[in-house]
Amino acid sequence: MGRHTRTLRPGDPWSWARTPIGVLLLLGIVALTGLLLRWAWTDFRYATAQSGTPGTFSARHCHTIHQTRGGDVHPCTGTFVATEGGFTDHSAHLDDNPVGVNKPLRLLRESDGSYRRPLVSTAVLDVAAAFGIVWAAAVGAVMVCVGSRRVSAVDGSPARSKPQLWASLQLWFTVVAVGSVAAGVLSLVVGIVIALTGH
């Protein structure tokens, strides 16, 4: 009697719709999570120099932009020379150059033509973002399971397998949510520490 169940009247449309809707929502969450994780993985590969064209950037001109938050930035234009392949870009632009004019800086050219520095701190923050995405997806999945497991009968006939399935999924997604948020927070802290120490 203590179970969160109810007997549905025959012909109740919600009794037929709740489980299919729950399945569709779970599939939607999985698809969206996959797209977001792909973005995080792409950024991670650039941050670890596994993607992109490596080379050296030498600034010809830089200027300072004063910001009220985050400190000043120093965008520069100059020349990028690829390490391999003989590619050279004489109009390369870098949003923030921590080195200065005529001082070589190791960079990566991305597929869209922009440039970035491969940094360990960025890679760790990408890992933290990936765990955050998994956590958000798991929490959403738990909510779907909670809403779907309330059905215990269809047309007056017991359908106990459905609540048991949703309960099992709810437990599994809860474990994933707890684990991913713990790993995400740890990765975020490590990334911030590495960034503050200048790596």
Which helices and strands appear, and what pairs or packs with what?
Layout: H1 13-47, E1 53-62, E2 76-82, E3 88-94, E4 105-109, E5 115-116, H2 120-148, E6 153-154, E7 157-158, H3 161-196
Antiparallel strand pairs: 1-2, 1-4, 2-3, 4-5, 6-7
Helix pairs in contact: 1-2, 2-3
Question: How do you describe this structure in short?
Answer:
By secondary structure, the protein is of the alpha+beta class. It contains three helices and seven strands; from the N terminus they run H-E-E-E-E-E-H-E-E-H.
Description:
By secondary structure, the protein is of the alpha+beta class. The protein has three helices and seven strands, in the order H-E-E-E-E-E-H-E-E-H. The protein has helices spanning 13-47, 120-148, 161-196, and strands at residues 53-62, 76-82, 88-94, 105-109, 115-116, 153-154, 157-158. The strands form two sheets. A five-stranded antiparallel β-sheet has the order 3-2-1-4-5, with no helix packed on it. The chain has a two-stranded antiparallel sheet with strand order 6-7. Helix 1 runs antiparallel to helix 2 (120-148). Mean pLDDT is 80; it is low at 4-16 and 152-161.
Main traits of this protein?
single chain, 199 residues, alpha+beta, 5-stranded antiparallel sheet, two-stranded antiparallel sheet, 3 helices, 50% helix
Structural class: alpha+beta
Low-pLDDT residue spans: 4-16, 152-161
Binned strand content: 15-25%
For the secondary structure, the number of strands is 7
Residue-averaged pLDDT, rounded? Answer: 80
**Proportion in helices:** 40-55%
The coarse overall form would be elongated
CA-atom Rg in angstroms: 25 Å
